[in-house]
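Sanity check record (used in CI):
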Amino acid sequence: MPLLNTTSHTIDDIYALPDGQRAELIDGQLFMMAPPSRIHQELVMELSVSLRNYIKEKGGECKVYPAPFAVTLNEDDKTYV
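Expected output for Protein conserved in cyanobacteria:
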């Protein structure tokens, strides 16, 4: 039985990944991600355009950023999605 990996990762570990390698960092734990599928990307585009058009029609100032777009949820360096 393999031992549980207790290594705590930081945002620096995300930045050190090879180009094209996708991962999320949640509470110091690194989660590797598979590339998105074609249908996923189609849905992202449709939703992004729909949201952007709605915001513009209503005179809103919000912006729509499709992935990949990094978000840090905490003020520490242990969470990055």
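The CA atoms of residues 26 and 79 lie 4 Å apart. If this sentence no longer matches the regenerated tokens, the check is flagged for review.
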